[in-house]
Amino acid sequence: MATFLYRVGRWAFRRRRLVGGLWLAALVLAGLAAAVAPSGEDEDLSMPGTESQQAFDLLDERFPQSNSQGAEARLVFRAPDGQRMTAEENKAAVAEALGLLDGGDQVASATDPYKTGAVSKDRTIAYSTITYTADAVDLTGPTKSALEGAASQARDAGLTVEIGGSALASEESPGGTTEVVGVAVAAVVLVLTLGSLVAAGLSLLSAFTGVAIAFGLVSALAVPLGLTSTVAILALMLGLAVGIDYALFITSRYRDERARGSEPEEAAGRAVGTAGSAVVFAGATVFIALVGLGVVGIPELTRMGLGGAGAVALAVLVALTLVPALFGFFGRRVLSRTVREGARPDSGPAGIGTRWARFVLRRPVTVLVVSVLGLGAVALPTLSLELGLPGDESKSVETTQRRAYDLLSEGFGPGFNGPLTVVVDTSESTESRATTDLVAKTVRAVDGVASVGDPVLSRTEDTAVLTAVPRTAPNSGETKDLVQAIRSAVSDVEADTGAGVLVTGKTALNIDISEAMADALIPYLTVVIGLAVLLLTVVFRSVLVPVKAAVGFLLSVGAAFGVVVAVFQLGWAADLIGIEQTGPVMSLMPILIIGIVFGLAMDYEVFLLTRMREAYVHGASPGEAVVTGFRHSGRVVAAAAIIMISVFAGFIGMSSPTIQTMGVGLASAVAFDAFVVRMAIAPAALALLGHRAWWLPRILNRVLPNVDIEGEKLSGHAPASPTVPDAAVSPLPVGRHRY
């Protein structure tokens, strides 16, 4: 691989105008495709195979007319203090407001709360349901303005009015102040690390190119592939983070080769052949882990994985081709001023990376124990992890949707916002109506059910639908227990009558998805860890290094989960990042974070340990190899981690709970993995293992392919400067060095 990538790097450097032109054309085409493509629509989550999804599918078949409606909104009215909604003046205000919607464009119907009984028991709160002929994404500006105008009309009459439902729902648009701050921090770190504005700009330019193309493709394919705004934001997030990092690693190696006297084209080839090999393997781990999310069986999670994987693949291609082409365009301006003035890369005092490596090698047991115990302590909140899916209750109290949710909970009970739908399939039953009545009676008798509505029969009267309102809120543990209690209670009815009874609705589906995610967590984690061990065994030709990497990955993921649970579920420091409502962690997050962090963790493992193994195979002792790896890669890996943390943290300020959770989880995971696992636990473990760290059984040595990630075969292409061990390192056996 190193030889092939070496040729790619040299070719891209020589044909830089062609390479640059091709990427520019791809950028323009992706932008044009995104501009002319129709907007995508966020879809509800689905989970094939669950009882709730089976019920939805049955409703699609037996009640096709129920799916002909489009978006839905609720106007929620509250009477002034001391008054009731049944007062004549308040009735008149409601009628006047609804009259503004009656017969409006895209309006299918607007219910009268006084005719449908949508008035609370204390007569202080009422609501009207407005249905539309178009989906939320297709509602026009005048249609939404009419809805807001109706609310304003009632407010002018003295009522408190809030708007709920999907009609005002809008997709989270990528980009914003906090993301810009994250990119600005990344730019500053690049300048400080590389010592050159041109080199920093090169990394940013290449990353932005890949991100722009990925985002354009996601936007263009949104409708045909059902890609949502969350997919676009995840592609943006990952594309920026890995794109900048991959360009930084190759640029750093190129500058190192130039400083050692290599000609520009040769340096470009060697940079892509060595650092580029690490980029390929690191990118491959992220890609495989994200594509592997499809095995969970949730279409939205599959699309998120594919979108993120596509962005990472583009980042790898850009780093391997566009970055060496930019080396040719910018010439010596890519180098730092000290190198342009003739200074050698190893001249000067030992850097902080070298000093830290020597410190760890002197006290490996202390560093290892403190690091492991520290991550374990941070991971403790994970024991309280609860999974769920966010709804309007998780939105800011500044939004009208959240205030409408609170008013409905106050007036009609906390379970009103999460009703359960009980579907009765009587096609195999001889007494359809009697069976339906028996199911209704059984559900009403279940403790925790506030009310059960009258059954609605299909046209062929072989299916009935009941609405059961819980006494508790949708995301509460009591509601989860209630769903299971209803399913258990109706099982006897099914056995006696031959009917099929299914419990569904958004609340039940969310519960089923959360349970499925919890069940899939351990198997997916096992597959990911197994893949990590296999890939790293091939890369480093070692048994213990991959095991150490996998254990470190578990520690960093556990600590990241601890932070997510502490912030979003327990509310610790939630105010600092604008989290107003705590609750269960979004059910998709654990598996999504595992998939992403797995790849990113392997990034730092590969980039840092590649230099260590390169030194070791050239004759350095285990201790010397650790110091050499930190001297060459420690500063760059630290900078890359800070960049990635900044990019992920920049998305915490977005209003979407999904994106906020991903931002906190990924930023904390990268921080723990890069600075604790890879820079403290890894060198401490290598110091204790000594030569055993790089041992590989003979049978595996014969069977496993040699990918030559260190670029040993490149020595035949041109003279190369050998890796120079740190002169201050003693050749004594590891564990007895004096630093």
Task: Briefly characterize the structure.
By secondary structure, the protein is an alpha+beta fold.
Features:
alpha+beta, Alpha-Beta Plaits, four-stranded antiparallel sheet, disordered C terminus
Structure description:
This protein is an alpha+beta fold and 739 residues long. Among the domains are: 115 residues, Alpha-Beta Plaits, CATH 3.30.70.1130; 219 residues, Up-down Bundle (Multidrug efflux transporter AcrB transmembrane fold), CATH 1.20.1640; 86 residues, Alpha-Beta Plaits. It is built from 24 helices and 11 strands. The radius of gyration is 30 Å and the shape is elongated. The C terminus is likely disordered.
Report how far apart the termini are: 37 Å
Number of helices: 24
* Average pLDDT over all residues: 83
Roughly how many Å is the radius of gyration? 30 Å
As for the CATH topology of one domain, it is Multidrug efflux transporter AcrB transmembrane fold
Beta percentage is 5-15%
CATH superfamily of one domain: Multidrug efflux transporter AcrB transmembrane domain
Name of the CATH class of one domain:
Mainly Alpha
Please give the CATH architecture of one domain: Up-down Bundle
Largest sheet: 5 strands, antiparallel
**Percent helix:** 55-70%
User: How many strands appear in the DSSP assignment?
Assistant: 11
Ranges where pLDDT stays below 50 over 5 or more residues in a row are 718-739
Characterize the overall form: elongated
* Class from secondary-structure proportions: alpha+beta
